[in-house]
Amino acid sequence: MTPFSRLLRASTAMALVSPLLAASPALAQSTTAQSTTAAAPAVPTYSMGAVTATADRTEKAAIDTAAPVSVRTNEELERFMPSSVSDMLSGIPGVTAYQTAGQPGTKINIRGLQDFGRVNVMVDGARQNFQRSSHGQNTVVFIDPDLIGQVDVVRGPSAVVYGSGAIGGVVNFQTKDAKDLLRKGQTFGGQVTAVYGDNAAERRGSVSGYAVADWVDVVASVSASDRGNFKGGDGVKVNASGWESESGLAKMTLTPNDAHQLRVSAMRSSFDYTAGSGATADKLETDTDTFTLRHRFTPESTRLIDLTTNLTYTDTDQNETRTGSTSNGRKTHVQVTTPGIDLFNTSRFETGSVGHALTIGGDAFHDEVTATRGTGALEFTPGGERTIAGAYIQDEIALNERLSLIGAVRFDTYEMESGSQTVEDTAVSPKLTLGYVVTPGVQVYGSWAQAFRAPSITETLINGTHPAPAPFRFVPNPGLRPETAENMEIGTNVKFDNIALANDRLQWKTSVYRSEVDDYISEYFNMVFGAGGAPNFSASTYGYRNEAEVTLHGVESELVYDAGFAYAGLTLTSARGKNTQTGKKLTSGLGERASLTLGARDRSNGIDGGWKMDGRLGLQDVHDSADGAQASGYLLHGLYVSYTPPQLDDRLTLRASVDNLFDTEYRDRLQTDSLEQGRTVKVGGTVRF
User: Fold this and answer.
1) Looking at the domain covering 3-462+483-518+547-688, what would its CATH class be?
2) Which partner for 345 in 5, 307, 351, 595 could form a disulfide, CB atoms 3.0-4.6 Å apart?
3) Does residue 46 surpass a pLDDT of 60?
């Protein structure tokens, strides 16, 4: 049964479930306040106006956060009909997302740092720690964009409240709630969404049912996609560049009173795809299950208690079958399970005229890795276990109406085991941020932070021999030291209303940073040559070691202007990095990037459309491909439009977009010979009932 056959059956079931939700007395109740909450805002919410708690655990708009944080809202995600995680993160300053052709998993890079937990990727706070080392890949995440309602990104080691490892930053994907789906005045309903893309004959669809009551919020969604091989800008199809996926989400939030809120969610995503071709072809199936149980306790009787407990569990299971002529039928299995707990309390109080938001918390997670090929161990990825736990204290201090201070310190400990080898260590990570409101609407801040990343199981304990015909040895390094990062940052937050027109607004975030990573861990390959210059693989070694220091520096800027009938968004990134010992430049995610969106809307007629430009220059990951071309600069153009007929009361939305409008030939991924996707026309629609 194809994914779309299953989706059709799910659509029928969802259509039957919705009337049952309506018939339930508990779910059918509503209040005027709830109807108002569910209504769409008069002015759409854009990135910097959206509320986030990812940077420092206390909820505030991104534009009011003294940290380099960006948010993508449900409205923005739907506008461009994203097919992948890369699409969802497109245009966010400082962020690069890579996907090899045919690989639905995505590698996320922030400020030149990636892999092995340097970027803490989460779904509803649940860590996505799947890691499999191979040619050209290490850490990738598998997430279905149809189930995501908001994406929060914090750049740099500024979020000490989010645990060990995040020296590059934090990305938190938040699954959809009923509030993301309800129409104005609804207490229950459903929707069906379908998208078709011509380049890869992509077909995607999702079905959702949802309901709210006085104290219950329920949403259930299923989605499926099927895409073939895409064409590059030269019109040539890229082999093994398609995949199929199926996903489901069930989520319920209970708020029996003002003091308690309990949220439970379960999400499963399955991806089927092929890697390679001919004698080295592999068929892969990757399943990711994510479960969360979150309780928040906020008694009205005191401001000293705002207690959140989040229990999480992620299980990513990848099965690979060799389908080519070499080792035909050979099985490879990689499974990473990560249970975790996150507990923190924020106390709000005053000492004289000084206000405090004091957060004390702790978290822990445990990675268990199983990796086999055939009847033995997987050469690139060793199995093992790793436990990391930490505790922190942070105080957000409002010294007066203009001056604020955030001070925090975190203590971490870790231990890993593989076979008879055990490695453990501890670290302390401080943070200090000072913010000052120069004039109403303009804030400047300076931040200094340290962060710590424990070595991964692979980096520390890799062991074995590479398969023939290149049988070099993998060498473990149990003496590998953890990475420590120190980051200095200066930023500004600017927001003004009624600038040139009534009810228009301007929001602008900019930051300048410099990071130094001591004991940076990198891979090495010591190739030994024998007589006549022939490689002596048996004497050659591969492993990981500490570099002396890596420095990274850059500028990031994000601007939004909205005049109601028209809007614009601009993001700019300039980033550089190098090994200070060797002078060698880093080769991932750096260079200059720009993203510009110009749009117009006619609310009375339900029309919204515009143009988007994405460009990149000065790539630090330039490399020669098989045809001699290089991954250098490029400029891409796209168009989008949506139509929501007002006479149908928001029951129907039709969308269309064109990506890579001029069929530009370009490369963005590392170590690949294939072009990126050429011109793609997408059409889609959402029916709400």
Assistant:
1) mainly beta
2) 307
3) no
